[in-house]
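Um, can you check?
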Amino acid sequence: MLRLRDIMTRDVLTVGPTTTLREAAELLATRHIGGVPVVEGSRLVGVVSANDILAFAAAAPDEPHDAPADDVDDWAEPGGGDPPARWFAELADSADHLDVVHEMDDEPTGVDALDRHTVAEVMTRRVVAMPPDADAVTAAARLRTLDVHRVLVVDGDRLLGIVTTSDITRAVADRALERRTYVFATR
């Protein structure tokens, strides 16, 4: 019987909960992987996947740029309405064109929601985890049933390894998961 310890990756790539979503996304993309365990110290605290990051990016609310308090009065006009044209003229006189554009952007230059939010905000805290002596066939069934792509191999809350759907597929291709049935003739 094939055990998880026989097919797991032992040198597991991990991230911490304070890793930015941008850093995590870049790591997943450059390593061509779909997710990584999240560890704090030596303790497993979750898993973050490309799907978690994509779901966040798709649902991220527009976060308006907060104007400094002293700029708020410059916008005020008796009776409300749009800012006076002189405000734009003064802004243009006080800076070059690029600075004017950046001051009016919703996001600071080169920074977006993925840079401001962390893995801890989107990670899955309830992970699929099994001990190293668990049967690989049982793990494959659990992955299929739960529709996930990785099972974390753990000893308590300590991460020992990871088995992905690719590892299971490789074991199937190598015929390592075949169950043999022996028939004995009786006299």
Observations:
- The longest strand covers residues 43-49.
- Confidence is low (pLDDT under 50) at residues 64-78, 99-105.
